[in-house]
Design goal:
The chain is built from three helices and two strands. By secondary structure, the chain is mainly alpha-helical. It has a domain of 38 residues: Histone, subunit A (Orthogonal Bundle). A two-stranded antiparallel sheet has the order 1-2. Strand 1 and strand 2 form a beta hairpin. Helix 1 crosses helix 2. It is elongated.
């Protein structure tokens, strides 16, 4: 598949890119090579290949959930510089 110089200039204008003549030539050539490669991939027969989300099989390492005791609110807040009503008090960072 070919891409024209005019198409590269048009896309550059849409993206608000200010390209010089050398960049336009370079991108026209590079994008043409990319589109040619993509076109060759489109010709590969994938009729019997199931769609996948990953190139390799991925299995999650699940573990059994176990209920355990946790620390108390008082202990969690024991070393906090400031706390109030069972919560940490931190400096305001937004607006």
């Amino acid at each position: 598949m070919k891409i024209t110089r005019e198409e590269v200039v048009h896309v550059a204008e849409l993206a608000r890119l200010d390209l010089d003549e050398d960049a336009i030539e370079l991108y026209t050539r590079q994008l043409g090579e990319i589109l040619t490669y993509i076109d060759s991939l489109n010709r590969v027969d994938t009729k019997d290949v199931p769609p996948t989300s990953h190139a390799i099989f991925i299995n999650n390492a699940f573990r059994e959930d176990k209920v355990k005791s946790s620390i108390t609110v008082e202990r969690a807040l024991a070393n906090a510089p400031r706390s109030e009503d069972g919560s940490f008090v931190v400096p305001k960072v937004i607006g």
